[in-house]
Amino acid sequence: MELSACIVVYNGAQEALQxxxxxxxxxxxxxxxxxxxxxxxxxxxxxTLAAAAADGTLRxxxxxxxxxxxxxxxxxxxxGHNTVLSLLHSRVHFILNPDIQLTADTLSDLADWMExxxxxxxxxxxxxxxxxxxxxxxLRRCSVRAMVYRQxxxxxxxxxxxxxxxxxxxxxxxxxxxxxxxxxFSAVDTEVFKAVGGFDEDYxxxxxxxxxxxxxxxxxxxxxxxxYTAIHAWHRAAHRxxxxxxxxxxxxxxx
Length: 255
Fold this sequence. Notes:
The protein is of the alpha/beta class. It has helices spanning 13-26, 45-55, 77-82, 106-116, 144-151, 159-165, 190-195, 208-216; strands at residues 3-9, 32-38, 64-70, 92-96, 100-101, 120-128, 176-178, 185-189, 221-232. Strands 1, 2, 3, 4, 5, 6, 7, 8 and 9 form a nine-stranded mixed sheet that branches. Helix 1 (13-26) runs parallel beside helix 2 (45-55) and helix 5 (144-151) packs across helix 6. The chain is globular, with a radius of gyration of 17 Å. It starts with a strand and ends in a 23-residue tail after the last strand.
């Protein structure tokens, strides 16, 4: 079974290279093509990524290859990931953030799980902070009240909306059908991903992953598969504790 993965980078090449190396080091069972897409970074990340792939700084194993694509303009997170859409020939494709770190062969594990569960077209693993604490991420369709609460937690009267958004009442220790796969780490059936046209490029940041999940769910089911995990540093500015000051957009393509 052939796998592919894509990391979109806007500045901060070193973090992306660390993520890429953990993907290469731990994805052992199946051939893998890893795409690194530079979204017209002004800090020279494109050159750094290209050099690392060319000079062997990024170490690959047999059956692995790394391709660096450098965009001329920053079209946002979804557009960056769609850059590879026409190039994909894998069975399962992985949408990864540059702040992801693997400690096991999570890509192969998720691909195997999807192969064993026909009708599942999108999955994500359990995600944890670098210190091992589990992350609570949205699992239901976008809720405006919950999204506002997650940026402005001082609005306590919407806390219950957030708990519903997180499926707090469900047993999330076992595979669970969900309505929202985070763009920080998603596995998609490549054929279906291409059939639905990838990400909607009219979204520049933040809700394009929710939209993609709904498009994928027109062709099958989405699942949280928590027995497989990955580290997620969670650099998205919208999830920092804001305590009700004006919102900050942070890095434009990070999720």
